[in-house]
Every structure is written in C-alpha cells, then in structure tokens.
Amino acid sequence: MKKLILTMALMAAASSAHAQAPARPAAAASAGDAAFGARMLGPATGEQIFTRVCAACHMPDAKGAEGAGRYPALAGNQKLAIGAYPAMVVVKGLNGMPAIGAMLTDQQVADVVNYVRSHFGNRFKGAVTAEDVKAMR
C-alpha cells in the first residue's frame, strides 16, 4: 500500500511538474523537483525506482500496456540501445511521457535508465552516468 501511495504521489507531482514546466525556468524546476524526488525515494537503486515509479505505467514486467493510454514496452526495446535516448526521455519527457526526471536526481535517472537497459531482456552495453544526465538538463 505504501508503494501505491508513493507511486500515486510521484505521478501526481510529475503531472503537475509537466503542466507547470513552460511557466518556470527548467533549472528551477529541476532543482526543486529533484529535491522532492530525492526526499520521497531516499537512497534507492535503479530497480527500486523502476518498481516505485516506472512500473505504474510500463508494468512490473516492463512489457507496457494499452487501454486508456499507450505505455510502450521497455522489455526488449531496441530504442534503449543508446543510453542517451532513454535518459533524455526520462529527463525531458516525450509524447505522453511526462518529464519524470525533473523529480529525480541525476544519479537516480542514471540508475533507473541503466537498470532498464540491463534487465527485461535488454543487455545493452555502456552505462549512463550522472554527469551525462546533468549535461542533458
């Protein structure tokens, strides 16, 4: 139940942050929201971040879902081959994906991206670093 509440809080914050992004500078949004995410998640591994945040839409098996919306599969997804792509999607958002990275630290983004790129049938080489994520912001 605690995970469900945390996931709902993060998704609500993501929607709010995504909706407010044009109204305030990106640097201010990233700094404040990343602090929120760090407080909410605490020290968390990439797996824990995936389970607590990403799995709500992309499903625990990372196979995605379709229904009221379309949530692409991350399992076996060749778009994850180059680490910059998923990192940029997490940081900046894309199509229906909100900029979840605005609520995470650079290290948390790198950790969750590296986790997804090395699990669920994905075996992509080359890790994304916190410095890579910082440069994307």
Explain how this protein is built:
The protein has one domain (2-136): Orthogonal Bundle (Cytochrome Bc1 Complex, Chain D, domain 2). It has six helices and two strands. The protein starts with a helix and ends with a helix. Strand 1 (65-66) and strand 2 form a beta hairpin. The chain is mainly α and 137 residues long. 55% of the residues lie in helices and 3% in strands. Residues 4-29 have low confidence and may be disordered. The longest helix is centred in the first third of the chain and has 19 residues, at 2-20. Helix 1 (2-20) runs antiparallel to helix 2 (26-41) and helix 3 (46-58) crosses helix 5. Strands 1-2 form a two-stranded antiparallel sheet.
List the helices and strands and how they pair.
Elements: H1 2-20, H2 26-41, H3 46-58, E1 65-66, E2 70-71, H4 84-92, H5 106-117, H6 130-136
Antiparallel strand pairs: 1-2
Quick summary:
With 137 residues, the protein is mainly alpha-helical. Helix content is 55%, strand content 3%.
Give me the Rg, rounded. 14 Å
What's the average pLDDT?
81
List the secondary-structure elements in sequence, H or E.
Answer: HHHEEHHH
Count of β-strands: 2
Beta content: under 5%
CATH architecture: Orthogonal Bundle
CATH superfamily heading = Cytochrome c-like domain
Adjacency order of strands in the biggest sheet: 1-2
Shape field: globular
Low-pLDDT parts are 4-29
The CATH topology name reads: Cytochrome Bc1 Complex, Chain D, domain 2
Indicate the percent of residues in helices: 55-70%
CATH class assignment: Mainly Alpha
Quickly count the helices. 6
Secondary structure class reads: mainly alpha
What's the main sheet like? 2 strands, antiparallel
Total domains: 1
Report how far the terminal alpha carbons are from each other: 33 Å
